[in-house]
Amino acid sequence: MDNSILSGIHSPQDLKKLNNTELEKLCVEIRETIIQTVSENGGHLASNLGAVELTVALHRAFNSPDDAIIFDVGHQSYAHKLLTGRYPQFETLRKKDGLSGFMRPGESEYDAFVTGHSSNSISAAYGIYRANVTLGKQATAVAVIGDGAMTGGMAYEALNNAGGKKSKFIVVLNDNKMSISKNVGAVSRSFMRLRNGKRYHRLKFAVGNILLKFGFIGKGIYRFINKIKDAARSYVYKNNIFAALGFNYLGPVDGHSIAAVESILEIAKSYDRPTVVHVVTQKGKGYSYAEENPNDYHGVSPFNIDSGAEKTVKSDFSAVAGKTLCELAEKDLRICAITAAMTYGTGLYGFSKKFRDRFYDVGIAEEHAVTFAAGLAKGGMIPFFAVYSSFLQRGYDQVLHDAAIADLPVKILVDRAGIVGEDGESHQGLFDVAFLSTVPNVNIYSPYSYSELAYRIKRTAEDGELAVIRYPRGGEEFAFDFDYSKDYTLLSVGAKQAVVTYGRTFSYALTAVKKLKNFDIIKLNKVFPIKPEVIKLISGYKTVHFFEEGIRSGSVAEHVASRLLEIGALCEYTVHAVDGEFVSQQTTAEALRTYGLDTAAIIEAMKQQ
To answer: Three-class SS string for 441-469?
Structure first.
């Protein structure tokens, strides 16, 4: 029988009954549960371990779900899930039909908003807050945003909109890496030492709590004291961006002290102006490997708890992309690499160390990254922007307006293209072909092997074109060398039916044709635009099956079908793709099976002919 404190937490209300000793033990249990589950299922580790006490304090200070608490990106919401009645299901985290690794309103009433992409929490929370005010609801909304997510421009758009107005809207800045306000001079350093001292915080919160108990008069005195303090702070911190945008600023406070965070949140609740509460935490807290290497343990595959090592280590497309760029950069000073806070995930860590002056991590700012790359290209450089497919969605306008209209030779390496597995709906890379194929001057490639990826990166570095190279998460299935110089490769057994495909799915088609030997394969080395000679080749078959690891609407199949109709082709065709839905979390193999895109599905489809 589970006698842990955590097993007795069925809602946030249960937290409010615990004493300090019980709260400390609860935090230990939460960390142990997160480490154990993530070691088996994979997921986001360091960010969640750092937010445990903060999450406990939030749920003690507010009344969720009436008070909406939105965790930005959502990859630090594991403790939130454990404290909102989902402990019994937590072992299903990131599994098919299990708990999501992010906030999902369909999963729980305590998940106020869909999360998965960065920097949207302030906008969403402020929207919920304004709706509550308009509808006369006595509830607030809180955005919990990390310092990394604060590099996204949308966060500042929201701050600009919410600041300076009478409200009880609260933003909690979970700072686990950088200092927000630049500290200038000896006075500033002394003030920071004073503010961060334990005696200061004990006195501050003691005085605050005493005054707040005296009702209206006490709150008035407390606000007066804080106005004086704010004036002094604005003199010392002349460049505090939050104050400039019309927010009260409280902190920094130790994010691993539940009492300190809870007290400062109670103070924030007493204001009638929007407030930023600056909380300082340590990523990976409670697990030594994650504390020492928080970047390595941000998002992890299943690992051994005792050694910290991943249970399965494989080479992958991201590593090949990074290695190839390093080879090019050795020979050509114009080669440079850009990432949007994904140095490790996109395989650019080696490049960042070898070529520091030609490596740019722009933060979570894909829009800026694309336009910055366009500027580099205009200036004579050869920029490669490595980005996850689902995150490139934020840069669509910049691809169209800043890169494509001028036909600038920007190179975009689209990582995690296609189905990505357990991260679920918000991270599936199923839309890039559909939305990029609407943009003139964009050339899209989708290598199926390491050798083809390396070839394409080297080739596009030489060509003066706006190029997109998309490749899947993980490693290659197997590889045969082909001539990749043409727009397509035809593997013919003299059949009257053909499979048209590209990328990873080509590997499954190769396996299927070895068993059946009753269809040809047209591999699209260049996914888009599709030249008339390819359309003519396809039109010569009696039956054509398109297999695409992407969304059907706007797919290559639909583009080709339109052209076939225009030329009056008589061939019959079938489209195998994800049709009008979001792909939920499950392993990549499970999703490919579900949507009929693996080897077995191709064999089954071609057997029917």
So the answer is: CEEEECCCCHHHHHHHHHHHHHCCCEEEE
285: tokens are: 């807290």
| Residues in a beta bridge with 89 | none
Residues 355 and 454 in one domain: yes
- Mean pLDDT, the chain, whole residue set: 90
Question: Going along 186-274, which residue ranges are E strands?
Answer: 248-254
Domain count, the chain: 3
Distance in angstroms (rounded) separating the CA atoms of residues 522 and 543 = 13
Q: Within this chain, do residues 453 and 589 fall inside the same structural domain, yes or no?
A: no
Determine the average pLDDT of the residues in 292-302.
88
Answer yes or no: are the C-beta atoms of 386 and 416 closer than 8 Å. Answer: no
Residue 48, domain member (yes or no): yes
Indicate the DSSP class of residue 582: P
List Cβ<8 Å contacts ≥24 apart for 587-594. 587/96, 587/421, 587/422, 588/419, 588/420, 588/421, 588/473, 588/474, 590/96, 591/419, 591/421, 592/419, 592/508, 592/549
Retrieve residue 168's tokens: 């009880």
Task: Tell me which residues are annotated as active site.
Answer: 283, 366, 394
Same domain, yes or no: 505 and 588: yes
Quickly count: other Cβ atoms within 10 Å of residue 239's Cβ: 11
User: Hey, what amino acid is at 312?
Assistant: T
| Span 535-568, pLDDT tens digits | 999 999 999 999 999 999 999 999 999 999 999 9
Total residue length of the chain: 609
From 443, 470, 497, give the residue that closes a domain. Answer: 470
**Residue 575 resides in a domain:** yes
How high is the pLDDT of residue 219?
61
Strand blocks (E) in 50-190: 68-71, 141-146, 170-175
Q: Are 103 and 174 contained in the same domain? A: yes
Say if CB 347 and CB 388 are below 8 A apart: no
Domain membership flag for residue 210: no
Domain stops at, among 441, 470, 499: 470
Q: Percent of the chain at pLDDT above 90?
A: 80
Whether residues 40 and 117 share a domain: the answer is: yes
For residues 200 and 194, is the Cβ–Cβ distance under 8 A? yes
Contact criterion met (CB below 8 Å) for 399 and 368: no
Q: Are residues 399 and 532 in the same domain?
A: no
Are both 459 and 506 inside the same structural domain? Answer: no
- Range(s) of the domain holding residue 358: 317-470
Q: pLDDT (tens digit, 9 = 90+) per residue, 401-452?
A: 999 999 999 999 999 999 999 999 999 999 999 999 999 999 999 999 999 9
Asked whether residue 458 falls in the same domain as residue 512, the answer is: no
Q: How far is CA 599 from CA 417, 450, 513, 589, in A?
A: 19, 20, 9, 10
